[in-house]
Each structure stands twice: as C-alpha cells, then as structure tokens.
Amino acid sequence: MTVRIRPNGLDTFRLAVVAGKRVGNAVVRNRVRRRLREIGRQLPIRPGLDLILGARPAAATATFADLTAAVRDLLRRAKALGGVPADRQMATFPR
C-alpha cells in the first residue's frame, strides 16, 4: 500500500483509491478498490485531509483483515488517524 496525504481545508476527509493493472484484472482491481473504500469508511480518519490510497499487487491476494491492518498501520504512521469513525463524513472525489 501507498498513501499520499494533503490538507483540504474542509470539515470532512476525502478518499481516493487507485489500483493499477499490475494488481490484477478488472474484477480483482474493483474488489480491491471496494475493500479499501470500506476500510476508509470504518477507520477514524482525521477530518480535513485528502488521502489517496494506492494498492500494490500483493493487495489482490490479501484478506480483508490483512488490508485493514496494513491501512491502519500506514495511516497511523502518517498521523492521519484520530477522528471519529466517519461513515457519512467521507466525501469522495468526483469521477
């Protein structure tokens, strides 16, 4: 996993998920993106941040629990955790 974080000046956080062709075929990439978006909804990410999560090829075979642990550790090290779980506070980037 990779993460890029920038302040956005809003009361919510925004999350984008990227999975390139090296992750797998379209079915696998979409499954990884769905899982990562759900993990983003469940974690207490600080408001006021724009996050881009990049999936690596190992994410294709990882379990949901493994992905959750990896994202939690990555965001903890980036000091992006600390808000309340934001089911409805997350804003997504337009497509």
What does this structure look like?
The protein is an alpha/beta fold and 95 residues long. It has a single domain, classed as Ribosomal Protein S5, domain 2 (2-Layer Sandwich). 33% of the residues lie in helices and 22% in strands. The protein has two helices and four strands, in the order ββαβαβ. The chain has helices spanning 26-42, 64-77, and strands at 2-7, 14-19, 49-55, 91-92. It has a four-stranded mixed beta sheet, with helices on one face. α1 packs across α2 (64-77). The longest helix is centred in the middle third of the chain and has 17 residues, at 26-42. The mean pLDDT is 89.
Portion in strands: 15-25%
Number of strands: 4
Number of helices: 2
**Principal-axes shape call:** globular
Main beta sheet strand tally, sense and closure: 4 strands, mixed
Mean of residue pLDDT values? 89
In terms of per-residue confidence, which ranges show pLDDT below 50 for 5 or more consecutive residues?
none
Helix content: 25-40%
CATH fold field value: Ribosomal Protein S5, domain 2
Structural class: alpha/beta
Count of distinct structural domains: 1
CATH architectural type:
2-Layer Sandwich
Q: How big is the Rg?
A: 13 Å
**Biggest sheet strand line-up:** 1-3-2-4
- H/E element sequence: EEHEHE
Query: What is the level 1 CATH name?
Result: Alpha Beta
Distance between termini?
22 Å
Structural key phrases:
95 residues, alpha/beta, Ribosomal Protein S5, domain 2, 22% strand, globular
